[in-house]
């Protein structure tokens, strides 16, 4: 409940939000997720948000360093970007993860909602297979003070997913999906819109940039 109250108190504009984007450094995905992170960053900056990336193009901080960086930044949200891999080359699709444990009866209310919004926006705007939203207790989700979401953007071991991710227009669509999901997280229920219908230009025209 406290998470939800803090979220509502920040208001709908993105200009006072601090967003941390954490692109993975694994060799098979580092270029893809870093490029998508930069596309998200540019769009958020244009809407007045403060944005921090946990790494640059070449460095590779540890998980604990990324968590500390996020907590010290005063982040409102953490978005961790990955591309999955699997021994079965037919494994494909997008999945999102938030902090939660059914065994212990705890979960991040805001994290779960944001993960669901990201999942729904991406699946509405792309032909990625919907691998749904899941609760996990990974350190990157559990130890981060801000609501945190991990997004697995397809599989590096699947030819069709990699073909999608190689296209600049597809990466742009993914970036816009993230922006709309972030904005919808902060909108009041009466101001929300149907999944897949909002555009970044709508946010500017509505005057909720600041």
Automatic annotation (TrEMBL):
SUPFAM superfamilies reported in the protein's UniProt record: Zn-dependent exopeptidases (SSF53187)
Gene3D superfamilies (UniProt xref): Zn-dependent exopeptidases
GO molecular function (one): N-acetylmuramoyl-L-alanine amidase activity
SMART domains: Ami_3
Keyword Hydrolase among record annotations: yes
UniProt-listed Pfam families: Amidase_3
Keyword Hydrolase: yes
Boundaries of every MurNAc-LAA domain copy: 70-183
InterPro entries: MurNAc-LAA_cat (IPR002508), N-acetylmuramoyl_amidase_3 (IPR050695)
GO biological process terms, semicolon-separated: peptidoglycan catabolic process
Gene Ontology cellular component terms for the protein in this record: outer membrane-bounded periplasmic space
CDD domains from the UniProt entry: MurNAc-LAA
Key words of the record: Hydrolase
Transmembrane region(s): none
Family matches, as PANTHER family: N-ACETYLMURAMOYL-L-ALANINE AMIDASE, N-ACETYLMURAMOYL-L-ALANINE AMIDASE AMIC
Protein's UniProt name: Unannotated protein
């Amino acid at each position: 409940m406290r998470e939800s109250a803090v979220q509502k108190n920040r208001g709908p504009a993105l200009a006072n939000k601090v967003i941390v984007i954490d692109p993975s450094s694994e060799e098979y995905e580092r270029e893809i997720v870093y490029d998508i992170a930069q596309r998200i960053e540019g769009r958020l900056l244009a809407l007045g948000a403060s944005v921090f990336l946990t790494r640059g193009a070449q460095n590779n901080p540890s998980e604990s360093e990324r968590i500390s960086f996020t907590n010290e930044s005063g982040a409102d949200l953490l978005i961790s970007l990955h591309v999955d891999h699997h021994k079965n080359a037919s494994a494909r699709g997008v999945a999102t993860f938030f902090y939660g444990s059914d065994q212990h009866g705890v979960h991040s209310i805001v994290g779960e909602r944001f993960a669901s919004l990201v999942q729904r926006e991406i699946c509405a705007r792309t032909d990625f297979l919907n691998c749904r939203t899941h609760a996990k207790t990974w350190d990157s989700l559990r130890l981060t003070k801000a609501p945190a979401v991990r997004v697995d953007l397809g599989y590096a071991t699947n030819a069709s997913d990699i073909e999608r991710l190689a296209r600049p227009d597809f990466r742009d669509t993914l970036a816009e999906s993230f922006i709309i999901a972030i904005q919808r997280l902060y909108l009041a229920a009466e101001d929300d819109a149907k999944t897949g219908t909002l555009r970044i230009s709508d946010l500017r025209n509505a005057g909720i940039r600041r």
